[in-house]
Specification:
heterodimer, A: 447 residues, mainly beta, 4-stranded antiparallel β-sheet, 32 strands, 41% strand, globular, B: 303 residues, mainly alpha, 0% strand, elongated
Chain lengths: 447, 303
């Protein structure tokens, strides 16, 4: 990776785009989650239609060494189906809220995918050989007449076209009354947590009929409900530690060794409010939409409506770094409240070395921040700005009166084109950006 | 920044009545204007928030996080308005209107909020200016399928919301035509509150007046059903006994949907629900549904 010492000097190039080109976007095709696996070889996406598509990183071409390999479709399967809750007369959406890969332990790959109510463990395995020469069956599967069998033979494994099978191995259902917003695999590789608006449950991957409730913030009297859980994640190194964020902009770190029910936090992270910028929307924009630990486990990052904050786990009083994503929207909060955009839940992600962070914005813009140099860049994920292997041009939103050439004014931003989900390859400078129904893959130019 | 469609009409500062209590003492008209502009903004934010809370997606459960954040915003505005004294003024005016109306508050709300066309069709002559204005005055409102209530229910509906209430505000502090909207804001809460107090029958407690100063607790408290319709069938109760009832309560108002046994007095929610029976006489059909369910259970259990 370039610039290890002095910071990252990325030159992002367009690599691929997946998805339909039509202007008419089918609701079911809208991508709702993007996740690389631990090696970066696989990239999984989930959509509103309940489908999971897995892309595999092809081997680099020997005759074109300046290109890293491309991601091509590896497997597609229907993870969740729409359901109907008869008791409440409400539909349960099949939209995949989150996908989390399990660390690979054998030749098969496992991932957890969840919708609002049910989590499923999927096994994705390859089959490239099949047995031929059965005694009791014909090649097409029909049973042979026993009287015709005159000799015995040993079946032989013959190569076949690669077939990728996805099968649901576990279904973790009926544990969440409210909508699941997060799942996180524990570092013990045996348990995982799932969080909904008011509760967090701890599961064992092998056991589907039981889960432990470890956080419950539901008030006895629902009239008193003023705060909900918005995201939760396990600490990557310590299997007893996890954090959860709230709609009031706070993060609580809990230690499962302290008590069975972790309602009392071990650490409480909250930045004191700036009284000069208080408005009716202060609470809404402080609501945290995503929380992610750094790979090192020492820091965590939170995303609220206008900014990304990096916290040192050892300091609860305030974040160590704050990055403004789209401060120019602060004066537009009322309109954004009216059209509900203020409730959009943006995600954020770290790069493999924790030196850079990325998050999405509107108008298909996404932002990257270099933690060392404090430089930031705005890029766009659109077909117009994506020439094959062309370097992405930095974009700028003009905030003042004079709009320079190539800048776009705040009022021209398209708030329907929002980038909520982004992912960064754990080892290389490859990023995946979901723009509505299209998945863009960008790579850093190898010098 | 104003939501779309809100009229920014602001007449001369001389027109402001004492209703805008906090403005009266301001010496300069500019300051007065600024304060009124702030009040206007705040009021439209309140209205917008209340409408957002009510118009929930029919088929899918609404986002709890969003609902909580909007409710907190409403609470915040209410607290500020209570401190200003504006809140008391509004509620007093509405109480007066209610007394004049002599109708059940919940019916008042159901029609006011959603039936902007309905009151015109009902041939009421009082609020003539409002139907035209109201629809544009309400930002981001979906055109809901409106339920026209049966005449048999005896509804003197919003037509009897007396003219006094609107005219006292009309050119007034808030400077916008739909002060009817601010009544709406109130009435929606009143409705929910009366639901909270209501018994099983939809005709019940019709003359219950709304309390004067409404705290956030009362508003948010309407999200819980205090007196659910008692289940007529013990076998059915057993069937639902392991349902987490408390979730159900918040759920019903936030989603605007209820399943058959709890339909009872919640006119507003029924009118929102496209699944639910469309008239207030639904409770009888609920009972027949329950009997059917009982019958089915008998078959399954084989008793």
């Amino acid at each position: 990776m370039a610039g290890v010492a002095g910071g990252n000097d990325f030159q992002w190039c367009f690599s691929q785009v997946k998805g339909a080109i039509d202007e008419d976007v089918a609701e079911a095709d809208i991508i709702s989650t993007v996740e690389f696996n631990h090696s970066g070889e696989f990239l999984a996406t989930g959509d509103k239609g309940g489908r999971v598509v897995i892309f595999q990183h092809e081997q680099e071409c020997k005759n074109r060494p300046h290109l890293r390999g491309e991601y091509n479709v590896y497997s597609t399967f229907q993870s969740h189906e729409p359901e109907f809750d008869y008791l409440k007369s409400l539909e349960i959406e099949e939209k995949i809220n989150k996908i989390r890969w399990l660390p690979q332990q054998n030749s098969a790959h496992f991932l957890l995918s969840t919708n609002d109510k049910t989590i499923k463990l999927w096994k994705i395995s390859e089959r490239d050989k099949r047995a031929e020469g059965y005694n009791l069956k014909d090649e097409d599967g029909r049973l042979r007449d026993p009287f015709r069998i005159t000799s015995l033979r040993v079946p032989v494994l013959m190569p076949m076209d690669l077939m990728v099978e996805a099968s649901p191995r576990r279904v973790f259902a009926n544990a969440h009354t409210y909508h699941i917003n997060s799942i996180s695999v524990n570092s013990d590789h045996q348990t995982y947590l799932s969080a909904d608006d008011l509760r967090i449950n701890l599961w064992h991957l092998e056991i589907t009929d039981r889960s432990f409730n470890i956080v419950d913030i539901k008030p006895a009297n629902m009239e008193e409900l003023t705060e909900v859980i918005t995201a939760a994640e396990c600490q990557p190194n310590q299997c007893n530690v996890f954090v959860y964020s709230s709609s009031k902009g706070t993060i609580r770190l809990c230690d499962m060794r302290a008590a069975a029910l972790c309602d009392r936090h071990t650490k409480f992270f909250e930045e004191p409010e700036d009284p000069s910028s208080r408005s009716f929307f202060s609470e809404i924009i402080s609501s945290i939409s995503d929380v992610k630990f750094s790979h090192s486990g020492r820091y965590m990052m939170t995303r609220d409506y206008l900014s990304v904050k990096v916290w040192d786990l050892n300091m609860e009083s305030r974040p160590v770094e704050t990055y403004q994503v789209h401060e120019y929207l602060r004066s537009k909060l009322c309109s954004l409240y009216e059209n509900d955009c203020i409730f959009d839940k943006f995600e954020c992600c770290w790069n493999g070395s924790d030196s850079a962070i990325m998050t999405g914005s509107y108008n298909n813009f996404f932002r990257m921040f270099d933690r060392n140099t404090r430089k930031d860049i705005t890029l766009e994920a659109s077909r117009e700005s994506s020439k094959p292997r062309g370097t992405l041009k930095p974009r700028k939103v003009s905030t003042g009166g004079k709009r320079k050439k190539d800048e776009i004014s705040v009022d021209s931003l398209d708030f329907n084109k929002k980038i909520l989900h982004t992912a960064w390859h754990p080892k290389e400078n490859v990023i995946a950006v979901a723009a509505t129904n299209n998945l863009y893959i960008f790579q850093d130019k190898i010098n | 920044m104003f939501p779309k469609g809100t009229k920014r009409k602001f007449s001369d500062s001389g027109d402001e009545p004492a209703a805008g209590g906090e403005d009266v003492n301001q010496p300069s008209s500019v300051a007065v204007r600024m304060l009124s502009s702030y009040s206007l903004q705040r009021q439209s934010l309140l209205d917008m928030s209340l409408i957002k809370l009510q118009l929930c997606h029919m088929l899918v459960e609404p986002n709890l996080c969003r609902s909580v954040l909007i409710a907190n915003t409403v609470r915040q505005i209410q607290e500020e308005m209570t401190q200003d004294g504006t809140w008391q003024i509004m509620t007093q005016a509405l109480s007066a209107a209610n007394a004049a109306a002599q109708c059940s508050a919940d019916r008042l709300v159901a029609t006011e909020v959603l039936c902007r066309q309905t009151e015109a069709t009902q041939g009421e002559q009082v609020l003539k200016p409002f139907p035209a204005v109201g629809s544009e005055g309400c930002p981001a409102e979906e055109e809901e399928e409106v339920v026209v209530e049966e005449e048999g229910e005896g509804g003197v509906t919003m037509s009897t919301v007396s003219p006094q209430a609107p005219t006292s505000y009309l050119p007034g502090t808030f400077g916008m035509d739909p002060c009817w909207e601010e009544e709406n804001g109130e009435d929606e809460e009143e409705d929910e509150d009366s639901e909270e107090c209501g018994s099983g029958s939809e005709e019940g407690d019709s003359d219950r007046l709304v309390g004067d100063s409404r705290t956030a607790e009362q508003v948010f408290g309407t999200f819980e059903i205090k007196n659910p319709a008692p289940s007529p069938d013990p076998a059915l109760e057993e069937l639902f006994s392991d349902v987490d009832a408390s979730y159900y309560d918040l759920d019903t108002v936030l989603t605007g949907m209820q399943s058959a046994p709890k339909m009872g007095p919640y006119d507003l929610l029924e009118s929102l629900s496209s699944h639910g029976p469309s008239t207030l006489s639904s409770s009888t059909s609920c009972r027949s549904d329950l009997n059917e369910l009982d019958h089915i259970m008998e078959i399954i259990v084989g008793s």
